[in-house]
Amino acid sequence: xxxxxxxxxxxxxxxxxxxxxxxxxxxxxxxxxxxxxxxxxxxxxxxxxxxxxxxxxxxxxxxxxxxxxxxxxxxxxxxxxxxxxxxxxxxxxxxxxxxxxxxxxxxxxxxxxxxxxxxxxxxxxxxxxxxxxxxxxxxxxxxxxxxxxxxxxxxxxxxxxxxxxxxxxxxxxxxxxxxxxxxxxxxxxxxxxxxxxxxxxxxxxxxxxxxxxxxxxxxxxxxxxxxxxxxxxxxxxxxxxxxxxxxxxxxxxxxxxxxxxxxxxxxxxxxxxxxxxxxxxxxxxxxxxxxxxxxxxxxxxxxxxxxxxxxxxxxxxxxxxxxxxxxxxxxxxxxxxxxxxxxxxxxxxxxxxxxxxxxxxxxxxxxxxxxxxxxxxxxxxxxxxxxxxxxxxxxxxxxxxxxxxxxxxxxxxxxxxxxxxxxxxxxxxxxxxxxxxxxxxxxxxxxxxxxxxxxxxxxxxxxxxxxxxxxxxxxxxxxxxxxxxxxxxxxxxxxxxxxxxxxxxxxxxxxxxxxxxxxxxxxxxxxxxxxxxxxxxxxxxxxxxxxxxxxxxxxxxxxxxxxxxxxxxxxxxxxxxxxxxxxxxxxxxxxxxxxxxxxxxxxxxxxxxxxxxxxxxxxxxxxxxxxxxxxxxxxx
Amino acid sequence: xxxxxxxxxxxxxxxxxxxxxxxxxxxxxxxxxxxxxxxxxxxxxxxxxxxxxxxxxxxxxxxxxxxxxxxxxxxxxxxxxxxxxxxxxxxxxxxxxxxxxxxxxxxxxxxxxxxxxxxxxxxxxxxxxxxxxxxxxxxxxxxxxxxxxxxxxxxxxxxxxxxxxxxxxxxxxxxxxxxxxxxxxxxxxxxxxxxxxxxxxxxxxxxxxxxxxxxxxxxxxxxxxxxxxxxxxxxxxxxxxxxxxxxxxxxxxxxxxxxxxxxxxxxxxxxxxxxxxxxxxxxxxxxxxxxxxxxxxxxxxxxxxxxxxxxxxxxxxxxxxxxxxx
Amino acid sequence: xxxxxxxxxxxxxxxxxxxxxxxxxxxxxxxxxxxxxxxxxxxxxxxxxxxxxxxxxxxxxxxxxxxxxxxxxxxxxxxxxxxxxxxxxxxxxxxxxxxxxxxxxxxxxxxxxxxxxxxxxxxxxxxxxxxxxxxxxxxxxxxxxxxxxxxxxxxxxxxxxxxxxxxxxxxxxxxxxxxxxxxxxxxxxxxxxxxxxxxxxxxxxxxxxxxxxxxxxxxxxxxxxxxxxxxxxxxxxxxxxxxxxxxxxxxxxxxxxxxxxxxxxxxxxxxxxxxxxxxxxxxxxxxxxxxxxxxxxxxxxxxxxxxxxxxxxxx
Lengths: 636, 326, 315
Fold this sequence. Notes:
The complex is a heterotrimer.
Chain A: H1 9-15, H2 17-34, H3 72-108, H4 110-124, H5 128-139, H6 143-170, H7 173-180, H8 185-221, H9 233-241, H10 249-276, H11 278-281, E1 293-294, H12 297-301, E2 312-325, E3 328-341, E4 345-349, H13 356-363, E5 372-381, E6 384-385, H14 391-397, E7 402-405, H15 409-412, H16 419-428, H17 435-448, H18 454-457, H19 467-479, E8 485-489, H20 497-513, E9 518-523, H21 526-532, E10 535-540, E11 543-549, H22 550-555, H23 560-567, E12 617-618, E13 624-625
Parallel strand pairs in A: 1-5, 4-9, 4-10, 7-8, 8-9
Antiparallel strand pairs in A: 2-3, 2-5, 5-6, 10-11, 11-13, 12-13
Chain B: E1 8-18, E2 30-41, E3 46-50, H1 57-64, E4 72-77, E5 80-82, H2 87-94, E6 97-100, H3 114-124, H4 130-143, H5 160-173, E7 178-182, H6 190-207, E8 210-215, H7 218-224, E9 227-232, E10 235-241, H8 242-247, H9 252-260, H10 299-303, E11 309-310, E12 317-318
Parallel strand pairs in B: 3-8, 3-9, 6-7, 7-8
Antiparallel strand pairs in B: 1-2, 1-4, 4-5, 9-10, 10-12, 11-12
Helix pairs in contact in B: 3-5, 4-5
Chain C: H1 2-28, H2 34-39, H3 45-55, H4 61-73, E1 79-80, E2 85-86, H5 87-122, H6 127-141, H7 144-158, H8 176-210, H9 213-220, H10 225-263, H11 268-277, H12 281-309, H13 311-314
Helix pairs in contact in C: 1-12, 5-6, 5-8, 5-10, 5-12, 6-8, 7-8, 7-10, 8-10, 9-10, 10-11, 10-12, 11-12
């Protein structure tokens, strides 16, 4: 990640045209309201009985007059002045008190938290407009009392929001780290937590300001806020209401002003939230669509089927998947080709960022769009290119002929459905089973993956099961429709080592029972590869750098990366004094060097390694390496 | 090494959560996270602690550095009871023992520069002057192999490996004698993991640090440790010099752990094939907690909890009624 | 589940007691002297003392509260002096009118809010999404009391399709059709802001959920998009939406104050404004208490629904 990839908050806001429009509108109104005393306007409270209820655009009265002959334009501007200042003050009061309460409650926890939050809950037990009404009633009508009432009823909102954020921050490791650095609680709250809460306070303020303006106008409308003859937008509307049928402009115009004001504030609020909210900032709040977008010219024209690939379960040709983040293009998969034979287990090995998972997800178009898209390649199966398939055909394959197992079984299972229902649903998606038959089949699948008491476990929810049991459920789900290909994306990485052994044994067992099914196994662990894979493809920076039979690649790696990667993993019982580490780190896939992506870390690199495109070269039967100086060469 | 050189001693360290009675007088379940752990840490040596998730190793680590209070038992740091001390004494002791977090990025405040993060312990624990801090920063960055330009960066601009190096630098900033490393490399890729492990080794030699190295990965623990303790269900079940433990494990759980590691170039994992995992911590079994999944378990194992006792070699202990023999 | 509901109901009791105290305290702070307000020109010192005795105002504030609370527990909210009838009768009558309005409104805003949010999230960045987002923004920026006036101008005055005010036609009204025609404008006006709030929240919650791994799993199982969005994603999003529905129920109840004023709806909101204006404290206390109690019950219902939906919350 480079520094320039994070533009300043102001620049982001400036580039959000809608928010910027809101900001301009708000500033325009504010400036006019501020300079109201020096504008050539008649005084807002000057009555002129002779000029009552003039229509807008009358001579000298741009917006007409009200029932006392007062100039509406002047009253509108003075009213906006009141609305903006009251809204801002109420927001400030509510945010200062509410945020302080929230910060203290969230940070202190325990009894303090309990007492403060019960008080807040009590306030929230009233519908808040009603509470404001009651408070104004008690304090007596008037603008400042309305302001206090509005501020008070909004305190719980701030307190709750800020408490939640503070609570989750307090549990973060960096707070513990600050404690270990010798910081006291007050210092931690002010220097560690507050800077992280501040953007949330700003967001909450900007999104509530509009509310506050609306609510004060509402109280004035009911006659409980600003008192006559003060010009206030809500009060003007309240007075004009009585003349609705004879002179609608008297109430419509101030209403329009409130609307414009609140709208501009809300536009700014949205913009501020988009800029400051960490969730939105990373651009991550986008919805992945049903399948990865394909922008591939060769997919549309559908070249002649690859005859050599027809006996394979799957043949991938020059697959390229990119992620578009901001203006950067990350070539996560940069031209991957491989075949998956029937009944074979192919391991796809690499470090994080090597593109192994994206390759697996791209097969059935599960890589998220946006920001991902497949820009080139074909995926052949039975003489057809899967990348040319419409959604319904892809859906028929998903979970049917081709099934997936994902890395984290907790996040991969739906938390609100029982595991039995989730397995049964997978069956019903592809087979015409009744609900009861599907459930029975689900239970027998759960038995097949050796879950004890499958019939009762089927009724449990994912959070009630252990990690290993959850992954067994995921495996059962993948097996539901007797798939011909199973794509397993790091299925044991999130598991403990003894549980991993259990799951690997189960997967081997299932493979023996169903010899026709092919397995594409994504992992970073060469030990797991030896245990389960027939062949292995090693990936680096989005491309396959070496392919071959698992045993051969492990015992006699040809690509320097493969060898170094195998060597830097400690082996129990070997008691190495020092691990042969690979210097440096993998290149960013948005800025790949020319030539071999590994050259910068490779002890054998020479000039030619940094030029042109280095192809995957054959090294004997079914053995390839993307290296011009492989560690060994076949005898000529 | 004589006992007087011991930096940190833990005796009968225990931590449980819950318990007591809840609202309406209902009994809350009592969860024993760590039970009766004894440890001693010698200068310049590495104690490895290995175990699977839920075995209590992280809770143990947090108690050692004073982030969590033991429910029973006590700790002696530098000959003083720890962490219940006066404020100034606690600060002094805090600088003796520091912690490296598993998730290095989440342990760095996203709104602070690396410089501010690294200066905090120097300022608050050691009370160092501005100039002294500046010199120390340069030295630290060099020690962990990072360019000094990174000091002005924010955590999100770092890679995983860089963030963990900063985590180590922060721990070193207080000039401790002991580092407690909680899964320091498990979030890293293998090629980066080897770099960090080597760095830790260099730092240990250079500063004569004592390490408590906690991990779920037996191979990594073996590579760095002098003595390894295996934890299961909140207890240490076996402790031995690293090489011996791997050559001839005495506890069947250690054996199972070793058998479960898939090795490159080998096929035919032993391990278990049934779905068996840790017992329910709210309802622990009466006897040996490992008995339900132990192939050698007999009646005695199911009724009587085994205590840690010396095995053949003098430095080896294991908690098993029927230790493995080779 | 049932034990959870029972437990929550038990928790409601202290909240209700706290509420009576707050209501009583606020109302006791209302300036002005009820006796003078009642007696008007006949306010001699003797008469004032007599009325104060009748109203129990000669006791200390705390005693007054206990007496009032004791009566409430017996189902007696006192007698409104301005209307000269039992507060309970008046409040229940008015409250049923408000419930009709707020209920219709709540149905509208839940239905359209949820639907708009789901569609908008499912088609993020499409034209549909943009139009909905714009409408939502307009909705939450519009003062409801002003919108009410505009709707009256257009539909009652200009087009004369719907009545401008009241709950029933003065002559020959009373059937359901008459009620619906009177209900349409105020219910829509009241629903607009809440619809916007719910739509926004639903969109956000849906987008958050649609990024989760389990949605990818649902797609990897070969489920069609309708099932993925309406069954898998929406169910998970509901967990976050339900508490807000509870809060919006309260908002709609409270917002009724404006709308009832604009449309002359004979509901409890208008009654409260009048009661406060005439210093009819018992009436105001009773009104606030009933509304607040119903609000607590709505939130309780939301809470229970949330727990029913999400098994993780109960364990």
